[in-house]
Amino acid sequence: MAERARGEPPKQRTGTRTSRAGSRPILPGVPVPIPIPVPVPVPVPSSLAPQPNARPAPRCRRQWRRWGLPQDGGAQALRRRRRRSGGGRGEAMLRASLRQVSAALKEGQVTPTELCHKCLALIKSTKLLNAYITVAEETALKQAEESEERYRRGQPLGVLDGIPVAVKDNFNTAGIETTCASNMLKGYIPPYNATVVQKLQDQGAVLLGKTNLDEFAMGSGSTDGVFGPVRNPWSYSRQYKEKSAPKSDPEHEEFKWVITGGSSGGSAAAVSSFTCFAALGSDTGGSTRNPAAHCGVVGLKPTYGLISRHGLIPLVNSMDVPGILTRCVDDAAVVLGSLAGHDPKDSTTIQDAFQPFELPNMPDVSKLCIGIPKEYNAPGLSSEILAVWSKAADLFKNAGAKVIEVSLPHTPYSIVCYHVLCTAEVASNMARFDGLEYGHRSDVNESTESMYAATRQEGFNDVVRGRILSGNYFLLKQNYEDYFVKAQKVRRLIANDFVKVFRSGVDILLTPTTLSDAVPYIEFIKEDNRTRSTQDDILTQAANMAGLPAISVPTALSERGLPVGLQFIGRSFQEKQLLTVAKWFEKQVKFPMIQLEEVKGA
Ligand SMILES: NC(=O)C[C@H](N)C(=O)O
Predict the structure, then answer these.
(1) Where does this protein have compositionally biased stretches of type Low complexity (predicted)?
(2) Is 552 noted as a catalytic residue in this protein?
């Protein structure tokens, strides 16, 4: 039976409603004006050093050390790492990439059970991060033993055989509690696996547990779940502590830590803190890419329809996709290969079988056209992120790619449009939680109506109830045309913007993922985090409304010593091209991983 690791209860939010920009409240229904981009001179973060000759980075020991990328499938490099780290079996493995650890498992350098024990121990010692809601220790060890048996007997192996993974707690897992971080579903043990969970297990993955999130994935902070907020592992990094952790704030000592972003913050923190090698998130308006950017990991949102949603507890059916969080782009390609393809249980999935692909070792971007959408220089974008973005564009130019400014003119409407469509679908999706079919049922029983009302009052937090209220308002007969139908039309315009740009010859769009680096929790709860969340999604929502694939790649460390990610958006079902460009970029920027010792001290 699954054992739970839970954090403190959510803290009360206080304070006034202001936007991140500090001055510009964003009201539903009011389109956001786009400012003329003003170039601001800012220091270039050192981890994004200019690369005048954009040759692919040499595949040398130094590069491997920084990135942990495999040179020989990874086994040889892992042996070296183990020697350097004093020979601790498993310990050095934790920082390895999924591909490296897979090679090490095949070479017998480590066994699935050793690896599983190491991950479980690290989950315990990093409990403060609150990344996991449920740690499925028994199930994980059983799966690891089964995998070990397959290795021992020389049986056919899956691509993820013996590799510890984690899954966001809004995917159904047979026999393991699935809560959506909500009182409504506490204690719910699904009788079946989501298709993606089943596919992970079919490939031999070891499921360590279920990761924390905002209630029903509504939010961009991972602060709004019933099991408490998730802490960003980078809060404990040397860089952050030296550069910006508030020095004296005894009253709020425990809130120096920064948020992970969300809503898949638990998954991002789990991958970033080395407790698993890959994790599933979900992405409806940016919930995989946003926390990936804040936690310094790769976050892939695939094309809508490429991966089955069956068993993912729905938020916005027309936009939800399972997301993939890994430590490098190559790993994201491996996980994508094991999840993608038609599912008879989800009629929105592609009909064709998906051909898993390997990314080229030396990606070449010199023949590509990279589009820089000017509207993504949105209100509230920090000057530091603007600088990282423009530096990244220079990298592509220096590599011989054509880099042009493009316009996606309807982007400013995406927040409003998303708000109407999201809440309308939320209102309809949440109707099933009525105290009869699933989850919580109130003791109030004077009448059916009072039971319904009390169940939903006790079961949902105010973010969820707020969205249900807005959604029902937009769906009222007298409002439907003015809001829902109009938003559908705007969604089409937003999608058409992308079509036009890609038809004009642009291969990939390059944008920031978030408006700023992660903020301390204490600051986050002082402001109205819903306004902040809404704003934060402006750079990611449009890809969901257009159904396009997008990936956030960790790029630089901010002045405060926190990760900054950039986003690439590709054409529908062109994941191979998208990931190839992302891999090239990843090799150029050499983003530093956090140290295992720093995380352990969390
Ligand atoms: N899962 C998501 O992408 C949700 C999105 N951040 C929202 O609050 O609607």
Answers:
(1) 13-27
(2) no
